[in-house]
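Schema walkthrough. Field components (list of strings):
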Amino acid sequence: MPNIGSLEASLKRSDEIKADLEKNPSHYSMLTGDRPTGRLHLGHYFGTIRERVHLQNLGVTTRILIADYQVITDRDTTANIQDNVYNMVMDYLACGIDPDRTPIYVHSAVPACNQLMLPFLSLVTEAELQRNPTVKAEMEASGHALTGLLLTYPIHQACDILFCKGNVVPVGKDQLPHIEITRTVARRFNERYGQVFPEPDALISEAVEVPGLDGRKMSKSYGNAISISMTPEQTAKLIKKSPTDSERTITFDKQNRPGVSALLTTSALCTGRTEVEIADEIGDAGSGALKKYVTDAVNDYLAPIRERRHRYEQDLDYVKDVLHEGNRKMNEIANRTLDEVRVAMGMVY
Ligand code: TRP
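Field assembly_structure (string):
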């Protein structure tokens, strides 16, 4: 995170835009994306996917990127990438993304987006790249030396956002440094070569941080995540083996009872009730009763989403068509923007 002052400023700006979006959806163009490293889970769903569907349905211009080149920023393999990309499309569609209104596409299929990386890299210094706290954290977590791609991917992310002239980017707080550098790149490009790009703002996801079943952040790598694509039985099994404690009476206390509290938050999100209300209702029926309640809440909530997902699982050709059409539309936009860039830079021959 940059610093507290600018975090506050970003949050304030994000809230102002959220209010204006409801009134003037046609003023906004959203671009956001995910790395195809696994299945989407409830953390993604309540953290951002629900918000994207809402923006789409309001009439905002919306686009979703499956960021395949970002997979190799901090790992050495592209194993399973095709399967992950197709499954990510299925997850989006099942959650309510409508491909007629929201193109879904991949980095590697849009060369003109990637080409913007060259002029954009000339606009930033090595020191600016080195200072990015998210990049530093990712490098430490990867346990590898800093690769050229990891160091420069925030500029590649600026290419993602700017080629389609996105002006709002729904992201988590960890992505704010990338939005900041995107604004810098846009501003410097415009100063040097003339006005081409907007300076985008982050739409910071609501405070809902969905805990994993053990109270830590929900993440596939911790084994504490309920994926949208799981069966009800797999969901029940995962919840059953989630850690609780020996206190019989159920109370909501994140600090001292992370496991029990995570189960309460999960059921609150799925039922629209509050954690305390659910805790009071279960009372001293214990964690077995709580687990049964959460399992039903999650499985009921996901039932229609999973039912739609099964239909896409049976129709991989359709899923591929969605992606091809998204790639086609986004190539048109990217080629147009790259032409503008060539004109602005005087590189027309
Ligand atoms: N870096 C984002 C993540 O890890 C994914 C991403 C790639 C993205 N390009 C983007 C997000 C453009 C917003 C806008 O989640």
